Structures are given as C-alpha cells and as structure tokens.
C-alpha cells in the first residue's frame, strides 16, 4: 500500500524557522489567538479549490480559519454566499454557522509570514501540502487563485510557462490533468479600496465558478 502523505502541516510545525519564531512572538503578545498553521476550510470532496497566499496576522492567524477576520475575507465570503457557494452567516471572528458548498479554501503557505510576504524557501517548504491536497481532491474541477503569486505557483506546480500564461483578472488555463485554472485579482482590502478590483468584478468571477 502506498504511503499517504498529509495535506496539512502539524500544529507545531517548525519547518520554517522565520515563520515559527514569528508565530511565537505573536503568541507571546496575543496568547488567545490561533497562532498555528491554518488548516484548509471546506470538504476534500469539493469541485472548487480557492487558493490564497498565506494567513493574515489579524485574520486567519487570529481566528484559525482561512480568510476570516480581515477585509479580504469580508469580500470573499460575501461573494460566496451571494453565489450559493456558501450558506449561513459570516462572522469575522469565525464563530458562526458558515458552511461551504462545493468549494474548499486554502493557502499556499499555512503560517502567517511577516509583512504578508513568504520567502521562496517558505513556499517550497509548504508546497507538498498543497500538492497532496490537490491529489486527494478526486472531484476537483477548478483551481481558483487569488492574486498573482497563487496563480504563478499553480502554474509552476504543473510545469507550465509563466511567460506564455501571463496573469490577468479572470484568466482561464486548461491544466494537464483536465482541471481548469482561473486567476483573479486578490480580494484584499487594498485592491478593493484602490478600485483595482471592484466588488462587482469579484462577484462576477465567483459567479462564473457556478457556470463551469
């Protein structure tokens, strides 16, 4: 029997010393926060995998759920609820009855990085969890990436050229395993406030996931 590798890091993961020490420093100041690797949210049997960059310090690192507790989460979960890919009520503290429908949410790097910027080594250390997650998602049809880094990381996992697949909002790429990669501008508060990404643009991109 083949060995089954984990798609989630251990709660005391110390693969990345910088991230491990950063979590420890936050825990010292905010001991009630999650301050551990953040697990994916949603069923492994989902047809859609939404991929972000990393937990936010005051968002998922605080609440323990991806995209929960910051501006990006407000935009993402409201769009999912509006388009019937989530049901219930979203609360930024994560204490709610929210359930995802046919989709799962994860991050490239599972621990909070300083200044929201993981290093290349940290991407590499966490890569196996994402690979194993995709491998286990037998019903997966769509990988929906939030932001340029997530989009290019998925291209790299599939050995696809960055130069031949330039990133832009709502780009669609057929992957070698017959799944579909869709790239979106990140739903960060900065992008929304600067109008690089409007709420309507993002809602339209989420709505298209239901039509594929």
Question: What is the element string, with H for helices and E for strands?
Answer: HEHHEEEHEHEEHH
How many helices? Answer: 7
- What is the tally of beta strands? 7
CATH homologous superfamily label: Uracil-DNA glycosylase-like domain
Structural class assignment = alpha/beta
Q: Can you identify the CATH class? A: Alpha Beta
Backbone CA Rg = 16 Å
- Into how many domains do the coordinates divide? 1
Let me know the average pLDDT: 95
Low-confidence stretches: none
Main sheet attributes: strand count, strand direction, barrel closure? 5 strands, mixed
Protein architecture, described:
With 212 residues, the protein is α/β, with parallel strands linked by helices. It has one domain (42-211): Uracil-DNA glycosylase-like domain (Uracil-DNA Glycosylase, subunit E, 3-Layer(aba) Sandwich), CATH 3.40.470.10. 35% of the residues lie in helices and 13% in strands. The chain contains seven helices and seven strands; from the N terminus they run αβααβββαβαββαα. The protein has helices at residues 17-29, 60-63, 71-82, 120-136, 148-157, 189-193, 199-211; strands at 48-52, 86-87, 99-100, 103-107, 142-146, 171-174, 180-184. The strands form two sheets. Strands 4-1-5-7-6 form a five-stranded mixed beta sheet, sandwiched between helices. A hairpin with a 5-residue loop joins β6 (171-174) and β7. The chain is globular, with a radius of gyration of 16 Å. The N and C termini lie far apart (35 Å). The relative contact order is 0.17.
What order do the helices and strands come in, and which of them pair?
Layout: H1 17-29, E1 48-52, H2 60-63, H3 71-82, E2 86-87, E3 99-100, E4 103-107, H4 120-136, E5 142-146, H5 148-157, E6 171-174, E7 180-184, H6 189-193, H7 199-211
Parallel strand pairs: 1-4, 1-5, 5-7
Antiparallel strand pairs: 2-3, 6-7
């Amino acid at each position: 029997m083949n060995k089954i590798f984990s798609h989630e890091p251990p709660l005391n993961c110390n693969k990345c010393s910088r991230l491990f020490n950063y979590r420890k420093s936050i825990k010292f100041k905010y001991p009630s926060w999650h301050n551990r690797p953040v697990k994916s949210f949603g069923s492994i049997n989902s047809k859609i995998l939404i991929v972000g960059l990393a937990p936010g310090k005051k968002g998922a690192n605080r609440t323990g759920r991806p995209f929960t507790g910051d501006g990006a989460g407000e935009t993402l979960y409201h769009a999912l609820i509006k388009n019937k890919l989530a049901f219930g009520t979203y609360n930024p503290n994560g204490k709610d009855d929210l359930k995802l429908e046919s989709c799962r949410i994860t991050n490239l790097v599972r621990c909070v990085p300083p200044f929201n910027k993981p290093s290349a080594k940290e991407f590499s250390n966490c890569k196996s969890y994402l690979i194993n997650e995709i491998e286990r998602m037998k019903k997966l049809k769509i990988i929906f990436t939030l932001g340029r880094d997530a989009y290019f990381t998925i291209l790299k996992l599939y050995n696809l050229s960055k130069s031949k697949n330039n990133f832009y909002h709502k780009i669609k790429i057929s992957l070698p395993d017959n799944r579909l990669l869709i790239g979106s501008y990140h739903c960060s508060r900065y992008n929304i406030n600067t109008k690089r990404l409007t709420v309507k643009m993002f809602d339209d991109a989420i709505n298209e996931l239901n039509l594929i």
